[in-house]
Structure formats: C-alpha cells, structure tokens
Design brief:
Layout (H helix, E strand, L loop, with lengths): L16 H24 L7 H17 L23 E3 L9 E2 L2 H15 L9 E7 L2 E8 L2 E7 L5 E3 L2 H4 L16 E9 L2 H13 L8 H9 L4 H6 L3 E10 L7 H11 L8 E3 L2 H13 L8 E8 L2 H7 L11 E4 L8 E12 L2 E11 L2 E7 L3 H7 L6 E7 L3 E7 L24 E5 L6 E7 L6 H12 L11 H9 L6 H5 L1 H7 L12 H12 L3 E3 H7 L7 H11 L2 H9 L6 H7 L6 H11 L2 H11 L3 E3 L14 E5 L7 H10 L3 E2 L9 E4 L5 H9 L2 E3 L1 H7 L4
Parallel strand pairs: 2-11, 19-20, 21-22, 21-23, 23-24
Antiparallel strand pairs: 1-6, 3-9, 3-10, 4-5, 4-7, 7-8, 10-11, 12-13, 12-15, 13-14, 15-16, 17-18
Helix pairs in contact: 1-2, 17-18, 19-21
C-alpha cells in the first residue's frame, strides 16, 4: 500500500488560520453531502479515494489547527439520518464508524498509538483481530432469550431503520440462537450480496424492464430496505457477524473469543478473520486478503484491525463520544480501476455550470454509460478533453462514470480545446469563479452571479429549502417544485406556506391539475402545515446561504440562541465593525462565513423575503444533546500527575461523559481535577473559586467508584 496524495495541494504549514477555516468549512459541507448520499440514499457521489482524500485533509486541518474542532465537527459524527420510510429504532449502544489508514506505516502508527495511550512499553504485545471489511449495509440484530426480536440498519449511528421483517428472510440470519447465548445479545454485522448474485439480479431486472443496480452494495441496501419483505425474500442476501452492541453478559474477554462464541450460537462469521500478535502478522493478513480480493466473490473495502482484549478496548474508548474507536482501524486499499472501457466524446453539456461529457453509449461494469462527470473546467483543461475525443471511462468507486484519460492517437483532426462558458446559460448573467482574497487563487467552480433573478437558482434554492435536512416537507420533491415554479404557484419559500390559502381562493384547484389528486394535495398541505415550527439551525441551513451548511448553521444557532440576534448582527457585520468581530470569534466560523452572512442579510430583497417567511413559521431553539452525566456540559481542566489514568484517557473519559476539556483555567472553567504536582493551574482555580477535586473524587463524581 502507498499513500494517496490529497487533492488539496497547499501545505498545511503555509495556511493562515483564516484559510484553514475556509477550507475546513468547504470540506465539511462536501463530506456531509457525501455521507448523506452514501448512508441514506445508497447512491455514492464520489469514488472512495476522493472521499478518503477529503476526509484525510479535513482531519489534518483539525490536527494542525485545533481551534477548528467543535462538538459539530464531522470527526465526531457518522453516517446520515435514517430514512423516513421505516419505523425508527434507537440503538442502545451507538453504531459508530471506523477510522481509515492507507499505508503499512499507518498500521505501525496505529499499534504505537495504542501503546502510548495505555502507557505500555514499546515491547508490549498488542494482539489484534484482522477481518475483511465487507462493503454492504451495516445491520444490528437484537436477540432476547435466544430469539430474534428486532433488526435495524445503522442510520446515523444513533437511530436506524426497523428492518426486522426483511432481515427474517435471510437464510444466514438465525431466528433462534443455539443454547448458551446471553439473555440479551445485540449482534452487529454486514448484509451483502455476492458478485454472482448481483449479476443474476441485474439480468432479471433488465429482463423485466426494471432499473438495474449500480453495484452489489447498492443492490444489497436496496433489497434490505424494501417496504414489502416478499421482495427482500427474493433477493440473494448474505450476512456476516463481526461485533456486538448491547449485551447482558459477554461470553468471552476477547474479540476473538466472542467471534468464536458467535459461531457456536449459529451466526456466520467471516472465515478469513484471523488473530494476529504483531504488526507483521497484521500486515501479512492484509496483503493475503488483498491478493485474493478478486476471487473473494464479494466486495470489500479494507481490512479491519481490532484490539483483541475487550478490557483494553474499554480503556481506549473513542476518539470522541460520536465517532471512531481508538481500539479499531480500517486499513483501506488504494483506488482501483476495476471497470474501464473506451468511448467517443460526442459533446459537453452543463447543469448548474457543472460539465458533463456526453458519450457514445458503452457498457462499463455491466452498466450502459452515456454520460460521465468532467468535474470542473480545470479538470477538462488538465486532461485536455475535446469534443470528438476517444476516452477511457471508468466507474469511479465502481459507481460514478468518469473519464480517466484521452486516447490521443485517436483524436480527430482539428479538434479544439473546450471553452467553458462565461455567462449563465439560463439567465445570461456573468458566470464567475470566486477569487480568494488571501491566496489569490480562483475557486474551481464557476457560478452564476444572477442570484436573485436566475430562474435556475430560484428553483434549486426552493428544492434545497424543502429538502430532507432543511424543512423536510414530504410530498414537495424536485418534481413538484419544478411544476409549481413553472406554474407560478411557488416562487419564494414563503409561497410554500401560503399555497393552501391561495388554492382555496383560486378557481383552478391544484387537485384538478394533471398529476395531482385530492388525497395527494391534502397530504401535501398537511405536510406543509406540520413544518410551520422548525429548529433555528435547520431554518438557517434551509436559507441556502453560501458557506452555511448544516455544521455552520448549528454553530451559529448555538452561539446566538435566537434568530433575530443572528440576523441583526449579520446585517451590521461589515468589515471592521464590532458585529463582524462577534462572528469572527465564533469557534469554527471564519471570515469567509462572516462575509457570506453579511452579504445575505444586508441584501434588501432577502430581508423582505425573510419577513414574509417568518410571518408564516415559528422558530424554536436548537435541540440540545441530552445527558444524565453529572459533568455533562461542564468545562473540565486536568492538571498535575494522574495516577489511575493517562492524560489522553482522562480527556477521552471526560468527553464520553459529555464534558468539555480545556487546556487552561479561566472564568468559564467549571471543575479542575488536580493530581500531585499541580501548580499554576491549581493556583488559578483557587484564586477564581473554581471547584477542585482529586482523581479519586473524579471517579466517584462520574459514577465509576
């Protein structure tokens, strides 16, 4: 394995704090969008390698600039919201994600970090299991007294979808465990589809005139998430168990021992899983699996290493209360080009100034491809792609068609470089690439400047406003918004909430229009009515302000508390003002976001629409993360020598209990845990009258005895 270089080429050492914040915010929005598409919609947007590069860069930025890390950081999250089509299941134990590494030296680093965190000698043996990471759909099976009582998808890691009826149709999932199973056992595993079954399914789909699936993972996810379990029963799905959630009593003290117990209970465990006692054994196992990858018969996206000793897993804990465990890591392969073909480029088309290559149809990995992404104009120039070129096409990440390279010796005579348009094809406004004032570099995306007059932007803003993570208005999807906009019924967000009233006064009722019926219209009006109250962070995200994704919306909502305070401050936040300074100092928010906020709220047209919208909806405070821990929400400082915990363990433990750990004592500090040798921090705490407790008292305070 070799490291894949990041797509972001500016060295971290050369970034200013403002540049880092700006890039961090852009990456946060991209990664959140990729996660939603992958986990919630079963439709990956980018290849694994591109996602990994974005995630690595995001984490590297937070490491180099610790001030970027907040409770809303994507490094503390996993997955996406569960689908609205199924009943919800709250996981008793969160189904968190894995960190990724890409090179042999990263595996050495992983084991070294484990030793350092636990305070062990370099010579100490750290046994780890190594198992193939199946590329399928994560699922949790709950057994009580040996009987299967519930099955749920991972969802966002905290709440998943109830797929109990569907999971019962899988032959490899026992309805009853063999004798000896714990009273309560929540089994974690992966539902997947083999290559042979995938090919056969697509043949049947095609013969029946139905849509074919993009890859085995999408086929498995789509099959398990059927509302009719009879359809799932017809699909050839398989299941491998790899872990556990809630359990009344573990059958062993090691990861390996629990997997062996799973097999005794009648559960399927991947036979290629091995117990390794050194980094060399771990790497040998990885390379053996990688060498056999083409013959496995199913897709994998790495090899997962887990510290074998369960007691050590508990001590290691998680990187945060919301994300990957320190005791496990996924060693992923580099990007592959498994499916490639050649086709001739016929033309280039644009959608929201995003270029797409129109190709002569070609079969790539069992799917007919006639379009391929060109990413942006820089990518077109870098690869020198011209109309009429013969190109090599691959399905990136086995899903998204993209052009790999041009076959230059087949280029037609006189082919000219493609010139990207400098005006919006919809409204004729100038299409510009933003210039970063700090670096002087141009944004890779060219955008229409006709924000308020461009019909294309108006429609897309409405779609964003009604989308799942914004107002989430059921029945008001892209198709309906396109129709209502063309008919002049909805032109602004506030029009959505006056639609029913206007329909009552209209001679031409919506229910009488083609494609609508009385029931569908009644349901739509009810769905709109149900969204008249919304948390402030979702409202802010729904406005579609540039650089204000879900993460920044939560940061701003949490900081200001109410919308009017935010609105007034943003309106007055021109450069150099006190209002601008208030926004600039918010953790995780930088000058780029502050400028975007000011531009939006200072625009009179936007102010007018906001007044109309706020007359229709009610904003409520952002939901708080509930916790019963006595230190939840408190700011804690550890000082002096700790005897029962390493400093890293103490920090991780505090965060697990919902506390915030600070490096220095201030008036905002709530609690100081002081060990022997505590000096200036202890003195500062005593001076400020802050409560000080010992390490033993900390264990009592947090209910650990």
């Amino acid at each position: 394995m070799t490291k894949k270089p990041s797509a972001h080429t500016t060295p971290l050492a050369e970034l200013s704090p403002a540049d880092a914040r700006s890039e961090h915010a852009r990456l946060a929005e991209d990664i959140a969008r990729y996660d939603r598409a992958y986990y919630q919609e079963d439709a990956p947007l980018v290849p694994d390698a591109e996602y990994d590069a974005a995630r690595q860069r995001y984490e590297a930025l937070e490491k180099a600039f610790p001030e970027l890390v907040t409770e809303e950081s994507l490094t503390k999250k996993v997955g996406a919201k569960p689908s609205e089509r199924f009943a919800k299941v709250k996981h008793a134990v969160p189904m968190l994600s894995l960190g990724n590494v890409f090179a042999d030296e990263d595996v050495h680093d992983f084991v070294a970090r484990v030793r350092r965190f636990l305070g062990l000698a370099e010579s100490a043996t750290i046994a780890c299991t190594a198992e193939p990471k199946i590329d399928g759909l994560s699922c949790s099976l709950r057994y009580e007294r040996g009987h299967l009582v519930q099955a749920a998808t991972r969802g966002d890691g905290y709440e998943g979808e109830d797929v109990t009826n569907n999971i019962r149709t899988l032959k490899e999932v026992p309805q009853r465990l063999h004798d000896g199973a714990p009273e309560v056992l929540e089994v974690r595993g992966e539902v997947y589809m083999t290559h042979a079954a995938f090919a056969a399914l697509n043949q049947r789909q095609q013969a029946a005139g139905k849509q074919v699936f993009a890859n085995p993972r999408n086929a498995a996810a789509g099959s398990l998430r059927q509302l009719d379990s009879r359809i799932t029963a017809e699909r050839p799905l398989h299941f491998f168990a790899y872990g556990w959630g809630e359990v009344s009593e573990l059958p062993a003290k090691t990861q390996w021992g629990v997997l062996e117990a799973f097999k005794r209970y009648g559960l399927h465990v991947n036979p290629r899983t091995r117990l390794c006692h050194s980094v060399e054994e771990m790497l040998a196992r990885y390379h053996a699996i990688e060498a056999d990858r083409a013959t496995l018969g199913y897709d994998i996206d790495g090899v997962v290493y887990k510290v074998d000793d369960i007691a050590l897993q508990g001590r290691l804990g998680f990187v945060s209360a919301r994300r990957a465990g320190r005791w496990r890591i996924n060693s992923r392969p580099n990007a592959r080009r498994p499916f490639c073909a050649t086709s001739r480029s016929r033309s280039a088309a644009r959608a929201s100034l995003t270029p797409v290559a129109r190709l002569e149809p070609v079969t790539v990995g069992g799917v007919v491809v006639s379009n391929a992404t060109l990413h942006n104009e820089d990518e077109i120039a870098r690869k020198d792609i011209r109309i009429g070129d013969t190109v090599v096409v691959q399905r990136a990440g086995d899903v998204i068609p993209q052009i790999v390279e041009v076959v230059h010796d087949k280029r037609p005579h006189g082919a000219k470089p493609y010139e990207f348009p400098h005006v919006c094809p919809v409204c004729g406004s100038a299409a510009l690439r933003e210039i970063d004032e700090k670096t002087g570099t141009a944004d890779v995306v060219r955008r229409c400047t006709g924000s308020l007059i461009c019909p294309a932007q108006a429609v897309e803003r409405l779609k964003h406003f009604a989308s799942r993570n914004a107002f989430d208005i059921e029945g008001l999807g892209d198709k309906q918004i396109d129709y209502f906009f063309q008919e002049g019924l909805i032109r602004t967000p506030s029009d959505i909430f006056t639609l029913e009233e206007r329909d009552r006064a209209s001679l031409t009722k919506i229910k009488n229009r083609e494609g609508f019926g009385e029931t569908s219209v009644r349901n739509l009006f009810a769905a709109i009515e149900a969204r008249r109250t919304i948390p402030i962070n979702r409202f802010l995200y729904a406005l579609g302000i540039r650089h204000i994704g879900e993460t920044n919306a939560k940061r701003l909502a949490r900081h200001f508390g109410d919308f009017e305070s935010l609105r007034e401050t943003a309106r007055d936040a021109s450069p150099g003002t006190e209002a601008r300074a208030r926004i600039d100092c918010i953790d995780g928010v930088g000058p780029v976001v502050a400028e975007a906020l000011h531009d939006f709220f200072a625009e009179p047209h936007n102010e007018k629409e906001l007044d109309a919208l706020l007359a229709q909806v009610t904003l409520e405070p952002m939901p708080q993360i509930a916790s019963s821990s006595p230190v939840a929400g408190k700011t804690v400082v550890f000082t002096g020598s700790l005897e029962r915990l390493t400093r890293d363990e103490a920090k991780a433990q505090a965060e697990r209990f919902g506390a915030k750990v600070a490096a220095s004592v201030s008036k905002k500090t709530d609690l100081v845990v002081a060990g022997p040798g505590a000096g200036s921090k202890l003195a500062k705490a005593q001076e400020l009258g802050i409560e000080v407790i010992s390490e033993d008292e900390w264990f009592v305070r947090t209910g650990q005895g």
